[in-house]
Design brief:
With 504 residues, the chain is an alpha+beta fold. It is built from 18 helices and 16 strands. It is 41% helix and 19% strand. The protein binds adenosine-5'-diphosphate and magnesium ion (MG).
Length: 504
């Protein structure tokens, strides 16, 4: 593995291989990525049984004989899971199969006592859709979605606190999953993350998945390969299993791309295999060679009828669709004059978008100012305190109250940041803080003029230099006035009055 450290994306490079050479080497290669995302569907009961799906119950209290595949039991398909899959399919403009089939995927693993997983193989319920991702410059890229199929989850192995033993918790067995398989259309770790975030946004808009990545409700397998730039043929891929954070996906891909390039350039060959990302070490490790589909002996599950989705169901689900992320982003962009990128950021979740719109409703004249504050100070504060927008310490009304005071020139943008911090920690409104701390902007010209005169009197040298043509000193005088007024003088007035006074 020594060749691996050289290309470590965290920069622990070997001294014999300067990173510039590596970068040049990488320019000759193109990265190709396809993601398989597993979204746990937010049904109350399992996909083929009535057991609850709630997270966090004591081990093995939520698995019944159907989930465990006891002989003689019969699975019954959960209609809600079907509706959710249809909903997703419609939202990505896919074809909804009127007829799809559940198959048995046979393999042995301790967390799968049945010996097979029920999944869809040849005939998935959703096929041929697409999603657009947005680059920071506003450019759009369409990512194909090959298919999305329904399947059941397996159980979970437990090691913690078991001193050398492995426990099996089967609560998760039979939990409904939608596996969303992309085309190999992604060309960088960044695109992969943007796509994964977009899917995450979409499933939460549709309320078909809670998106909780810590609890494993949303996770992905990243298929990664490289090929020489200009080549049409796909390289051999490695599949990095079960990555459950955006940051880890990005890091795992960077690592894997570097590993593959390094390997090929050293004369080796990438083998098709399943790898595991180790977040502590920041590297991927081989887990097993990749099985082929025929290793699984897929065959239609004899216990389940083919799944029929009638047009009436599709129409009913279509009518239930909410405003989708792209529609909302387009509306926000045109209604409030926002850039495509900003509108994309503000519509990352329904909660964030409605927070923003609630602010704008209260300060209708300031949609851009509102966008800047929501994406800037507010996002930073939420991030710092690890809160999501639903638990913001500042209500939309409070933030709107602050923006009003910027809009009517009571305070400057700079002072507003100070007021924001005080609002965030105290929960009080902007006016109370402005009054208490005496932060009201000075807009009285006579008062500003008096300050200017004092400063001119105190700095005769600079004044003479300025008048002798050293224009750059203007900034010095502005700084002095702002300092003397603790930043409270209205900046536009300071500029205007200074110009007049200094040259008279
Ligand atoms: P499997 O089901 O065996 O994992 P699939 O052919 O269904 O294989 O592909 C799974 C995922 O791997 C898809 O997202 C696909 O886009 C991606 N993929 C396939 N070939 C490559 C490749 N050469 N490089 C990168 N990704 C690939
Ligand atoms: Mg796969």
């Amino acid at each position: 593995m020594s060749n691996v450290a050289v290309t470590d994306p965290n920069g622990r490079g070997s001294p014999s291989e300067p990173r510039e050479n590596l970068r040049a080497a990488h320019d000759n290669w193109e990265t190709v990525i396809g993601l398989e995302i597993h979204a746990q569907l937010a049904t109350r009961s399992k996909i083929f049984s009535g057991s609850p799906t709630a997270y966090g119950a004591p081990p093995n209290t939520q698995a019944n004989l159907i989930d465990l595949g006891y002989p003689g039991v019969l699975p019954v398909l959960n209609a809600e899971a079907v509706r959710m899959a249809v909903k997703f399919g419609l939202a990505i403009g896919a074809r909804i199969a009127s007829h799809s089939v559940f198959a048995r995927k046979n393999y042995f693993y301790p967390d799968l006592p049945k010996g097979y997983q029920i999944s869809q193989y040849e005939l998935p319920i959703v096929a041929q859709g697409a999603l657009d991702i947005l680059h920071e410059d506003g450019a759009r890229k369409r990512i194909g979605i090959t298919r999305a199929h329904l399947e059941e989850d397996a159980g979970k192995s437990l090691h913690e606190g078991l001193a050398g033993w492995t426990g099996i918790d089967l609560n998760r067995a039979g939990t409904p999953l939608l596996e969303i398989v992309s085309e190999p259309d992604l060309r960088s770790a960044r695109e992969a993350v943007a796509y994964m975030k977009k899917v995450h946004t979409l499933v939460r808009y549709l309320e078909i998945c809670d998106g909780n990545m810590q609890e494993g409700s949303f996770r992905c397998d990243a298929n990664v390969s490289v090929r020489r730039r200009g080549s049409e043929k796909l390289g051999t891929r490695a599949e990095i299993k079960n990555v459950n954070s955006f940051r880890f996906v990005e890091k795992a891909i960077h690592y894997e791309v570097a590993r593959q390039i390094e390997l090929i350039e050293a004369g080796g060959r990438v083998v098709q295999e399943t790898r595991l990302y180790d977040p502590d070490k920041g590297e991927t490790r081989s887990m097993r060679t990749k099985e082929e589909a025929n290793d699984y002996r897929y065959f239609p599950d004899p216990d389940l009828l083919p799944l029929a989705v009638p047009p009436s169901l599709i129409e009913e689900v279509r009518r239930s669709l909410p405003e989708l992320p792209d529609q909302k982003a387009e509306r926000l962009a045109s209604q409030y004059g926002l850039s495509a990128y900003d509108a994309g950021v503000l519509t990352a979740s329904r909660e964030l978008a409605s927070y923003y719109e609630e602010v704008v409703r209260r300060v209708p004249g300031e949609p851009k100012l509102a966008a800047n504050w929501v994406m800037g100070e507010l996002a930073a504060a939420l991030n710092r305190d690890n809160l999501d927008i639903a638990r913001s310490r500042l209500s939309p009304a409070r933030l709107a109250g602050l923006l009003e005071r910027i809009g009517d020139a009571t305070i400057s943008g700079k002072i507003a940041k100070e007021v924001f911090e005080a609002m965030w920690t105290s929960g009080r409104d902007a006016d109370a803080i402005i009054a208490e701390k005496g932060l009201k902007q000075i807009t009285d010209s006579a008062a500003i003029e008096r300050v200017i005169e004092e400063i001119m009197a105190k700095n005769p040298g600079q004044l003479a230099d300025y008048r002798a043509g050293k224009d750059k000193l203007f900034g010095f005088f502005v700084g002095q006035v702002m300092k003397a007024t603790q930043g409270k003088a209205n900046p536009a007035q300071v500029n205007e009055l200074l110009k007049r006074k200094l040259s008279s």
